[in-house]
Amino acid sequence: VVLCLLPHLIISVVLPIPLLSGIYIVSVSLHLLWHHPSALLSVCTLALYLPPPGWLYFNGSFYYISSIAKSWQDSRDDCSQRGAVLAIISMKHLSKTNMCDIISMVMWIGLTDRETEGVWKWVDETPLTASFWYSGEPNNFKGRNEDCVVINHYYSNENNWNDAVCENEYSWLCEKHM
Ligand SMILES: [Ca+2]
Ligand SMILES: [Ca+2]
């Protein structure tokens, strides 16, 4: 019981709020469990739905925006270390303008044509179906090998993707499904 509870509570509850509150919630949970073992499921569920510190919730996923810039591969590795992936943007995300509140800069997403030029794939190996390229993109600008994709806030909200050189350094957007 404690093993199930503690990882979620430590990650999702204790860190984002003052320590005393976290301890309080842990102790309340243990008290509840002692007298009402059936509370385990609801406590675990509640803990799972609380966003980890630094993450934003939007439309069924948590998103993390880096405050520093890295290459596409280093950004991808960073997301992996956070138990997430570089963001996979589907139609449902960008058809809702709420996502614009989250996206406020140029940042890597998990789309690349590194394996085969012109064949775009998400980092989970799914092919690109719905796309939101900015006008004229993807373009391998001036003959450069542009194989990785950024969302560029300075373009229009709906169509704001640009293929960029993977070694360039930008912020990045990690996504973790609930
Ligand atoms: Ca390319
Ligand atoms: Ca480009």
Automatic annotation (TrEMBL):
Record-linked InterPro entries: C-type_lectin-like (IPR001304), C-type_lectin-like/link_sf (IPR016186), C-type_lectin/snaclec_domain (IPR050111), C-type_lectin_CS (IPR018378), CD209-like_CTLD (IPR033989), CTDL_fold (IPR016187)
The C-type lectin domain, residue ranges: 58-175
Keyword Membrane: yes
MF (Gene Ontology): carbohydrate binding
Organism superkingdom: Eukaryota
SUPFAM superfamilies per UniProt: C-type lectin-like (SSF56436)
Keywords for the protein's UniProt record, in alphabetical order: Disulfide bond, Lectin, Membrane, Transmembrane, Transmembrane helix
Coiled coil: none
Membrane-crossing residue ranges in chain numbering: 6-26, 38-58
This protein's name: C-type lectin domain-containing protein
